[in-house]
Design a protein that fits this description.
Elements lengths: L1 H8 L4 E5 L5 H10 L3 E5 L3 H8 L10 H8 L4 E4 L10 E4 L14 H10 L8 E4 L7 H10 L11 E4 L18 E5 L2 H12 L5 E4 L2 H31 L4 H8 L29 H11 L5 H27 L8 E5 L14 H11 L3 E5 L23 H5 L3 E4 L8 H7 L3 E3 L14 E3 L1
The structure holds nicotinamide-adenine-dinucleotide (NAD).
C-alpha cells in the first residue's frame, strides 16, 4: 500500500486505462499531463492503431494532443491485456448501454473484469468509472476478480469513481470536474483519492462505492426528469398558443430557485433525449430498484415523455406540411444536426436517428446534414447508411421542409431560413432570426 502511495506521489505509478473512448482518452490525457505514464487498453485495434500513430478519432481531442501524449513514450495504447501486469492502477471506462429489453447491459464491464482477472497482481488499485447501478463494483466486479485468487481490500484495492465528462465543454475539462470517489475500504479510498488528487483539481470522497455509484445515476436522473418537464410544458403551452422558450427565458431571469444556463441547470425542450447517458442511466436504477420492490415512477414518466417527443415533432412537421397542401409521404425533408447535442460528433441515442427512421417509415424522402458527422456510422441498433448533404441555396430550396433537430452553433440560421421553404425548429435555433419568420414553425 505504501509503495503505491509513494509511486503516486512521485509520479512513478503507471496508470492503465481500459476503454479509450470519449471518457478514457481525455482521462489518459489528464493523467499524462499530471506527469504519469499511461497505458491505454482497448479491444478495438483501429483505435489503438490510430493512437499509436498520433491520430485522434474524437472531434474535441485534436491529433496534436495525442502526438504530445506519445512524446517520450509517456503514453502507449495496446490491445494486449497481459500488459495490465505492468501498471499500478487500472481504471475501467467501458460502455454501459441498455439491452433491447432496456435492462443494464453489463457485458462490457463483465468482459473487462474477465480480462483483468488473469493479470491482476497484488498491490494494484482497480477503479471502475463506467456509469452503473449501485452495487455493481461489489456484486459484479469483485466476484470476477476473485478468479485471480486475490481478495479485494486485502490483496488489491478497489474503488468506484463516476466519470463526469462533458465532451466539448471548454470550461470543464476532466481535470476541472470534481471527482467523486468511493472506496471498498479505507485503504482503497485513500489510494484512489491520492491517484485522482494528483491529476484533478478536486476530489470528493464518499463513504462507499455504492454512494459513488448512486451519485452518478442521481445526476443523470435529475437531468432526465427536468428535460421531460420542459418537454411536457412545451406541448401544453403550444396548445395554449404560448411560446415555451419565451416563458423559460423569462423564468430564467429569477435570480434564485430556477436553473441557470451557466451551470447547465437551465433545461430547454427538444426533439427527445440523446446521448449515451441521460436516456440510459436512469434505467439502471429502475432495474436495480425492482430488486428492492420499488418502482421509479419519476424515471418512468420522464422516459415516457422524452421518448414520445420525436412523434410530437413529426406531428408538428406533418401539420406544417399539411398547411402547405403537402403530404408527408413523398415530401423531401432534410434533418439538420444528427449528433445528439450541439457541437459534438457523437450520435449515440440521438433523437435525430429516430426522427429519420420514423420519417422514412412515413414515406418521406429524408436527407441530413451535420458538419461533424459526414456519414452515419453503424450503431448497435441502427444503420442508416446515409451521407451528410452539402447545404447550398439550391439544395435547401428543393426541400419541402428543413427540420432542425440539433442546433450546432456553426449553422447560419438566418441563411438557412432565407433559402428554405419551411423550417421546422425543434430547438428554437431560429429564435433570433428576424426575416422569414412565417416560414419557421417551432416544434
Ligand atoms: N461520453 C460521455 O460523455 C460520458 C459521460 C458520462 C459517463 N459516461 C460513461 O462512461 C462510460 C464509457 O463511455 P464512453 O462514452 O467513453 O464510451 P465509448 O464507447 O466512447 O468508449 C468505450 C471504449 O471501450 C472500448 N471497450 C469496450 N469493451 C471493452 C473491453 N472489454 N475492454 C477494453 N475496451 C473495451 C470500446 O472499444 C471503446 O473504445 C460509460 O459507462 C458511459 O455511460 C460517458
Amino acid at each position: 500500500m505504501e509503495t503505491l502511495m509513494d509511486r503516486i506521489a512521485n509520479r512513478k505509478a503507471v496508470v492503465g486505462i481500459i476503454g479509450m473512448g470519449y471518457v478514457g482518452l481525455p482521462l489518459a490525457q489528464t493523467f499524462n499531463l499530471a506527469g504519469f505514464r499511461v497505458v491505454g487498453f482497448d479491444i478495438d485495434p483501429a483505435k489503438v492503431k490510430a493512437l499509436m500513430a498520433g491520430r485522434s478519432y474524437i472531434k474535441h481531442i485534436p491529433a496534436s494532443t495525442v502526438v504530445k501524449m506519445r512524446r517520450g513514450d509517456r503514453f502507449v495504447a495496446t490491445t494486449d491485456f497481459r500488459r495490465l501486469r505492468q501498471v499500478d492502477s487500472i481504471v475501467i471506462c467501458v460502455p454501459t448501454p441498455l439491452t433491447k429489453e432496456r435492462e443494464p447491459d453489463m457485458s462490457y464491464i463483465v468482459g473487462t473484469a474477465e480480462s483483468i482477472a488473469p493479470n491482476l497482481r497484488r498491490g494494484q488499485l482497480v477503479v471502475l468509472e463506467s456509469t452503473t447501478y449501485p452495487g455493481t463494483t461489489r456484486e459484479v466486479v469483485i466476484p470476477i476478480l476473485a478468479k485471480s485468487g486475490l481478495a479485494a481490500g486485502k490483496d488489491y484495492l478497489l474503488a468506484f469513481s463516476p466519470e463526469r465528462e462533458d465532451p466539448g465543454n471548454p470550461n470543464f475539462t476532466t481535470a476541472r470536474i470534481p471527482k467523486v470517489v468511493g472506496g471498498l475500504d479505507k485503504a482503497s479510498l485513500r489510494a484512489a483519492c491520492a491517484l485522482y488528487g494528483a491529476a484533478v483539481e478536486r476530489v470528493v470522497p464518499v463513504s462507499t462505492c455504492e454512494v459513488a455509484e448512486a451519485t452518478k445515476v442521481t445526476e443523470n436522473i435529475y437531468r432526465c426528469v427536468n428535460i421531460a418537464l420542459v418537454n411536457e410544458l412545451k406541448m401544453i403551452y403550444d396548445r395554449m398558443g404560448i411560446d415555451v422558450w419565451e416563458v423559460l427565458e423569462a423564468a430564467g431571469t429569477k435570480p434564485f430557485g430556477f436553473g441557470k444556463k451557466e451551470n447547465k441547470t437551465f433545461f430547454t425542450p427538444g426533439p427527445g433525449l440523446g446521448g449515451h447517458c441521460i436516456p440510459i442511466d436512469p434505467f439502471y436504477l429502475t432495474w436495480k430498484a425492482r430488486e428492492f420492490g420499488c418502482t421509479t415512477r419519476f424515471i418512468e414518466l420522464a422516459g415516457e415523455i422524452n421518448t414520445g417527443m420525436p412523434d410530437y415533432v413529426i406531428q408538428r412537421l406533418m401539420f406544417a406540411l399539411n398547411d402547405r397542401g403537402k403530404a408527408i409521404k413523398g415530401a423531401r425533408v432534410c434533418v439538420l444536426g444528427i449528433a445528439y447535442k450541439p457541437d459534438v460528433d457523437d450520435m449515440r441515442e440521438s433523437p435525430s436517428v429516430t426522427l429519420i427512421e420514423k420519417l422514412q417509415a412515413l414515406g418521406a424522402k429524408v436527407t441530413y446534414n451535420d458538419p461533424y458527422i459526414p456519414r452515419t456510422p453503424r450503431q448497435r441498433e441502427h444503420d442508416l447508411r446515409m451521407v451528410s448533404r452539402k447545404l447550398t441555396p439550391r439544395f435547401l430550396a428543393a426541400q419541402d421542409a428543413v427540420l432542425i433537430s440539433t442546433n450546432h452553433s456553426d449553422y447560419d440560421y438566418a441563411w438557412i431560413v432565407r433559402h428554405s421553404r419551411l423550417v421546422v425548429d425543434a430547438r428554437n435555433a431560429c429564435g433570433k432570426v428576424k426575416a422569414g419568420r412565417s416560414k419557421i414553425v417551432k416544434a
